[in-house]
Amino acid sequence: MGNAGITRKLDWSLVAVWLVLVLLGWINIYASVHSAASPDLVTRPWKQIVWIVSAMVLAAVILFAFKPRLWEVISIPSYMVIVLLLVAVIFLGSDIKGSRSWLTFGPISFQPAEISKITTSLALASILGKTNFKLNNFRNWFITAITILLPAIAIIMEKETGSMLVYTGFLFVLYREGMSGWVLGFIFLSILLFIFTLTSPVWVPLAILTAAILIFFLIHYLQDRRSLRRKYKIRKTAGTAILAFLAGAAIIFLSDFAFNHILKDHQRGRIEVLLGLKEDPSGVGYNVNQSMIAIGSGGLFGKGYLQGTQTTYGFVPEQSTDFIFCTVGEEWGFVGCLIVIALYAFLIARILIDAESCREKFNRIYGYCVASIFFMHLIINVGMTIGLMPVIGIPLPLLSYGGSSLWGFTVLLFIFIALHRHENY
């Protein structure tokens, strides 16, 4: 069919939205540092241009230089190499702003955590994509859990909490591949228990846990009452309910220990401000407070490009990286924010549609991994800037300043575009 046929089979809508987001990112990065007093004016926008051009080259190489089958072949070896690098970073990495997550080789620095999202997605697609592999026995569950937990635990030890939270998005992938909806429900319940344990007397989360388990048992009891194996199923449901209650009780009593003895002071402070346990507008709550002022001051249509006062005078720290959405809100307003979020929504929805059209399980599962990673980054970053999530330092995909982030998301996305094109071709 030739190269013309290959390019016709590309999902050009995904390529187009990637390009639009990247260009919007550069426009807002320039706006966030354009003040003459900013030391980053001379470097950041122009470095980002270099990274954008190199990302385009990476995308072209992935699409036209590599056979799509290569990604399945290297999925497990590349995963193991990156896990080893994640462990190495703990001991050899550079300490940057309290996080030991960067490896430095002369003038070059990179975060293995960014690459690990790609390799973990490929490894999950390879494992779950095997013929007759189903999440219905302990062995398969153990293999899947270890695949996700190994890099996640290493990232926690690097003090990269934000990157670790992205890994919870893989639960949506597991749900698509047959995981019970009750598992997702229990995870949501665990988050509620953690929050209520920190904000209420201990009897409140215990009462919530008890009510949830009773509802769970009642639903299954009503479903199984006409079953020929009713007694067996009721006993099994009762056993599951007891285990769930014990696990929930453990979460309640361990939450206080984890909060006070595992999380760092600044992490505890951010959670306390988020939950309203204390106010600290000039301390740990400063970033969020200034971010909300910037976004709120933008109104419906914004103050205009390069006219944002919060942006111009540098009131919001890390505005070109983790808080890039503040620039969008202040200078482009509510309408600009909606357009950016709509672009992400289209990107994620299109990936899922393409994934469902794939005949090969590996391609479908990898597509769901990609969509989940973009979704988690979007929810956490935007939630962080408007005060609905703790400040944990996580970039907005394709918009935030940084080469590692831009390259990582570009490779992640274009591998899927290449896999999907191969199916059509």
Describe it:
By secondary structure, the chain is mainly alpha-helical. The protein folds into two domains: 2-159 and 264-424, no CATH class; 164-263, no CATH class. It has 17 helices and three strands. The protein has helices at residues 2-8, 12-33, 44-64, 69-92, 112-128, 138-157, 161-166, 170-176, 181-199, 203-224, 230-261, 265-274, 286-297, 309-312, 324-357, 361-385, 403-424; strands at 94-96, 99-105, 108-110. Strands 1-2-3 form a three-stranded antiparallel beta sheet. The protein starts with a helix and ends with a helix. The model has no long low-confidence stretch (mean pLDDT 80).
Biggest sheet overview: 3 strands, antiparallel
Report helical residue fraction: over 70%
Class computed from helices, strands and strand pairing: mainly alpha
Into which percentage range does the β-strand content fall? under 5%
Q: How does the overall form come out from the CA principal axes?
A: globular
Q: What oligomeric assembly is this protein in?
A: single chain
Spatial strand order of the main sheet: 1-2-3
Helix-strand pattern: HHHHEEEHHHHHHHHHHHHH
Query: Any low-confidence stretches, pLDDT <50, length ≥5?
Result: none
Euclidean distance between termini CA atoms:
9 Å
Radius of gyration: 23 Å
Write a compact overview of the structure shown.
The chain contains 17 helices and three strands.
What attributes does this structure have?
425 residues, 2 domains, 3-stranded antiparallel sheet, single chain, mainly alpha, 72% helix
